[in-house]
Amino acid sequence: MRHKRLFLLLVIGLLVFLQACATSKSTKEMKTEQLEKQIADVDRKIEDIYHKISVIQFMVDSHQRLIRSLESTIGKQKPSPMAPEGTREPPKAAALPAKSTTSAGRQTAVLSESAEMMYQQALAVYQKKDYNQAAQLFQAIARNYPDHDLSDNALYWAAECFYAQKDYRQAIAVFKRVVNKYPKGSKVPDALLKIGYSYLALGDKSNGRSFLKKVVKQYPFTPAGSKAGEMLQKTEKQ
Predict the structure, then answer these.
(1) What is the pLDDT of residues 190-209, one digit of tens each?
(2) Quick one: angle between helices 99-127 and 2-77, nearest 10?
(3) What is the pLDDT of residue 174?
(4) SS3 at position 84
């Protein structure tokens, strides 16, 4: 009888122990799932922040372009300093410019105005998050006005449109065009940074880190360099 009781006690104890282990395991799994969910939420928030920063940067680029255009216009309109009354020469007849030069100048002005109008239109479409249409407009600017001051910006923001849609392969291709076509342009650091981000998003950690290191090395004291360094530290922990 005692043996049976001992046996039952042992069985009950074993069942309690197994249940406790199962509960402990279940609790750990729940904590792990919660942690993974929190990490995913943080990643989504970071992605949203990067998108908002891109929109702000886009607006800054546009305003800087407008300011430069206004400064250039004001500089051209400044009157030349007046000569002293006694030394003033009689006015001379202004020479008429050659017809071909006038025509070329007007054509250049029209093309420049068209590019700027299209750029403003693309900006408005981008802000509405119509990325397909915005990408087409930006690429049209880069294609039709390759020598315009806005062409590298336009190509960069076309790539940003693909990046915003998570079309990372197409984004990489267009960002690389920015780097290769305008190697001395102001958008190169950001383009290299986004190439690194895109490779990481595709799961290609090797290429992603390679481009991030290039940004840190070549542009250490820039916003892009800082972001690249932060992402490198993050990927080291993963």
Answers:
(1) 999 999 999 999 999 999 99
(2) 150
(3) 98
(4) coil
CB 179 within 8 A of CB 211: no
> How confident is the model over 6-24, as pLDDT tens digits?
666 666 766 666 676 666 6
Residue 231 in contact with residue 200, Cβ under 8 Å? yes
- Residues 154, 138: contact at Cβ < 8 Å? yes
Residue 31 half-sphere exposure, CB side, CA atoms within 13 Å? 6
Q: In this structure, which amino acid lies at residue 114?
A: S
> How far is residue 235's CA from residue 219's CA, in Å, rounded to a whole number?
20
The pTM assigned to this predicted structure is 0.62
CA 127 to chain centre: 14
Residue 57: is it exposed, middle or buried by C-beta count within 10 angstroms (0-12/13-18/19+)?
middle
CA 9 distance to own-chain centroid:
67
**Distance between CA atoms of 200 and 198, rounded to whole angstroms?**
5
Task: Evaluate whether 224 touches 193 at the Cβ level (below 8 Å).
Answer: yes
Structure tokens at 139: 């690429």
Q: What is the DSSP string of 133-199?
A: HHHHHHHHHHHH-TTSTTHHHHHHHHHHHHHHTT-HHHHHHHHHHHHHH-TTSTTHHHHHHHHHHHH
Please state, in angstroms and rounded to a whole number, the distance separating the CA atoms of residues 43 and 151: 32
Using CB atoms within 10 Å of the CB of residue 197, give its burial: 0 to 12 exposed, 13 to 18 middle, 19+ buried.
Answer: buried
Q: Please give the backbone phi and psi of residue 112, each rounded to the nearest 5 degrees, phi first.
A: -60, -45
Please give the structure tokens belonging to residue 75: 């500089």
Side-chain half-sphere CA neighbours of 123 within 13 A = 18
